[in-house]
Amino acid sequence: MAASHLLVCVILWTYYYYISHGGDDHGFVTVPTRSFQPEAVCSDSRVRTLEPSRATVSVPLVHRHGLCASSQDSDDPSFTERLRRSRARANYIRSRASATGGTVTTRDDDTKVTIPAHLGGAVDSLEYVVAVGLGTPSVPQTLLMDTGSDLSWVQCAPCNSTACYPQKDPLFEPAKSSTYALIPCHTDACRNLAADGTGCTSGSDTQCGFAIKYADGSHTSGVYSDETLTLAPGVTVKDFHFGCARDQDGSNDKYDGLVGLGGAPVSLVSQTSSAYGGAFSYCLPARNSEAGFLVLGGANDMSGFVFTPMSVEMQTFYVVKLTGISVAGKQLDIPPAALATSKGLIIDSGTIITELPTTAYTALRTAFRSAMSAYPLLPPNGDFDTCYNLTGFSNVTVPTVALSFDGGVTMDLDVPNGILLDGCLAFQDAGQDDPGILGNVNQRTFEVLYDVGHGKVGFRAGAC
Q: Which residues pair with 281 in a beta bridge?
């Protein structure tokens, strides 16, 4: 796997060069190997620049522990561990989906804010992180960006090493903030958490508590709190409700907490809806040496977007309907019933690999293997059964893959960034009758715009 991993990283590096020289021919992209060396410097040349005339606020995007950061971290979970966590997360999301706020202050007339989003490989996952500020004075926080969660939280002091996991930034200290406040137990804000098993803390009539258990078995608990959240210089969310966590257990480490972007009332999106209309978008970068973004608010320019209807399930999950798949420019013969799962396809920023119903996945795998028959197929690797040994080839020709959604919308996945991961096809089998999940690999380099108020989601290619 090490050799194929290196080769795919090089493919990622060279893709944009090749496309600019006409590399897409009849459903295939051939990538030259002469530039098969990773970038040595941070690159943000492909990040969309917001129009200053539209009174928007933009923050430069860097990967916290990648080449765009002032310091890097060599710690990295294994490929197998990343997939294990992703599979656990996908299973948890499926089980939930199958089961039956704050005032924003901006400068002048700002109507949107952009905050950083980065590939979080250095926080023991392939999830993405954003950099924000919390408290007064504002303290930097590095938070996992999660469309599959609602409640935002950070680790708070005091918290000893047995109760809190190690993180790169200092723990947030409520006692040092002039705007921090506990949310009282018997309030609407606290009662809104009751459905998640949270509420009044044990033995207390004054403190509202929270407790969250995640798919990988980790859990976080503490007190529900009120604070000022800084999204960018001069752009704050006052009375932002979040969890001040003082008891953690599990695989969480290094990042400071999580920002929830789901559809429930406690999410950041919902809490800022009066200012930003409940719309948000992001672009997930392909590599740590490239930058992405998270935007609160609708896009200034809608050109280039294609939109498909979207629904919100279980108050949290954003769901679209997959209607077809093509490989190398040819539509696969998949019976419509095989794609018409009851819950559709859940778009998730935290799941790595896209999971498809069995019939659809089998058709995709067969067509992709046929198109890649020139390259040696490796033995199955855990959840991956379509991986290649690309060592020794001077060029690699990768077939295009496109996903079609309700309304005639087609998402042409980035080649190879949105198709291959460590030399493996970035799809897997979800089971015949289970809802599918659109993972973050397929979303790479797209701006994904969630227009919750109008019930649609948009995709714009080549945004970062």
A: 295, 449
Give the C-alpha separation, 30 to 182, whole Å: 57
Which of 110, 150, 256, 348 is catalytic? The answer is 348
Q: Are 351 and 86 in contact (CB under 8 A)?
A: yes
CA-nearest of 79, 108, 93 to 381 is 79
Cα dihedral 187, 188, 190, 195 sign: positive
Q: For residue range 184-223, what is the model confidence (pLDDT) as tens digits? A: 888 888 877 754 444 565 555 578 888 887 656 677 888 9
What is the pTM assigned to this prediction?
Answer: 0.85
146, 256, 385, 422: which one is catalytic? 146
Q: CA-to-CA distance for 300 and 112, rounded, in angstroms?
A: 9
Encoded tokens for 20: 């600019």
For CA atoms 153, 108, 279, 119, give the dihedral sign. negative
Nearest partner of 33 among 12, 10, 5, 16, judged by Cα: 10
- Cα–chain center distance at 443: 8
**CA dist 361 → 338, 339, 353, 427 (Å):** 10, 10, 12, 7
Is residue 348 annotated as a catalytic residue, yes or no?
A: yes
Tokens of 9: 């990283």
- pLDDT: which is higher, 204 or 312: 312
